[in-house]
Amino acid sequence: MNVHAPANYAQPPLLEVRDLTVEFATRRGTVRAVEKVNISLAKGETLGIVGESGSGKSVTSYTVMRILDRAGRIASGTIRLAGVEVGTAPESTVRALRGREMSMIFQNPRAALNPIRKVGRQIEDVLIEHVQAQPSDAKEKAIEALKAVRIARPEERYHAYPFELSGGMCQRIVIALALACRPQLLIADEPTTGLDVTTQKAVMDLVVELTRERNMSTILITHDLGLAAAYCDKVMVMEKGKVVETATAEAIFRAPTHRYTRKLMRATPRRGVTLRDLLPEDAPAAEPIVALPPSGDGPLLKVEALVKEYPRQTPGSGLGKVFGVRGPVEDPFRAVDDISFEVGRGESLGVVGESGCGKSTASMMLMRLIDPTSGRILFDGTDLSTIPAKEFARSPWRRRIQMVFQDPTDSLNPRFTATRSIADPLLRMGEKLSRTALRGRVEELARLVGLPASLLDRFPHQLSGGQKARVGIARAIALNPDLVVLDEPTAALDVSVQAVVLNLLQDLKTRLGMSYIFVSHDLEVVRMLCDRVIVMRTGRIVEEGMTEEVMAAPKADYTRELLSSIPHPPI
Fold first, then answer.
1. Which 3 state secondary structure label does DSSP give 563?
2. Of 149, 381, 399, 435, whose CB count within 10 A is highest?
3. Is there a contact between 436 and 520 (Cβ–Cβ < 8 Å)?
4. pLDDT tens sequence across 374-402
């Protein structure tokens, strides 16, 4: 259901882009990133631009904002905003337009904020730069901007640094920055990537409400088709720098005409489909896999009354800090509050919940990266919580528990080739192998995860997101672990790449007899991959059970709230 207000089509378009072509100069010659793109955006209209990484979505938006990389240039075409030719305007003119007439919400809110400047001051900078405030009233207007984006306790948050705020809170700060000067055009570049479903809905509802109040036009760049269906009037689909289809949201989702649009639709997780259904129609048939029977009796992992507390301390005065005088000690904060669950041999357990619910903290305790405050972690009958986290890396148990991290880029050493990254656990914890045998094992792992051998000598920056995800998975299974903890392993991937990776994970689990703990905020992905699911909120488990049963008939109000927040394309 589209929630945006009706656009005003009687007036001339606010933004008109004609035959826009953008090129980048590279060492290997000129690369055409965007070719003959046309956009006509009415006042009050929301346009969704969808497509996979490399399709030209962000380059198009950066060109409209005139913030292209130095190597990029507008080869041809025009960009007119409210009658002003942006493409050829002097930089001084464009600088005045940015923030005042057009602004942008960037994909990574923490990277978009200055880490060493208070968020309130950053909003003041924008207001003063565009003559929307004077130094005397800038603080008051900055606090008003924080109130507008529903920041709790805005007077306190004014003094906060970005690292003191959650991801959802940082995203609200970035929205406040973008809307501080009441621009006519707002460009939101993947504004909800990495956010849980309820925070995503809150952020998008907030953007829609504010743009409706101010009669703004919006461009939403996303690879989430459900999001585009719910919040956009029109949708433009891009592939390899070209627009392949443009239509109303209703029409494009109910009757897509281009094969690429149909491919994106098919790869989108939704009710009533299986993991194999996400793959392209021309994907080769799955080879029969002989399931490895679970070894041992009883549950592989048993967690009993697990608790993790962090001390809280009220900051003292400046002089108090200098002289070592601390403020009054408060009750500790419980990130994980008395949780108990089991993971069977060969079973997939999904862990879902909002940001801050304790999912990642629990995962780090299970991986023995941090010590629990109390409770037991029984792995194959042995209490691993008795082994200090700082010593566990050298424990023989380490090789039996591995992890696939959320960000495939940050989790790889930029100085290591794919071969070296995959070989790292073998070198550190495996049996001593000759160079030839080690290379053979790495190539075997690469084949298992579908990574071409020709890519093994490349560095992370030379690989795509999906290829880096495969390297991370190959590294995690190198020692044939019994349990793999997957922390949002597909959150940053395109839907088609996600479909391939999810099927790969399912096949590997069956072939190698592993157990999974799959931490995610994408409930549809959890439904397709996991046998059972636990739902966490404020450090506690509020519901658990078989995945299909919990998804079909949730008992907890909070679970129902999560499920109702998922945006679904009308397909």
1. helix
2. 149
3. no
4. 999 999 989 999 999 999 988 999 999 99
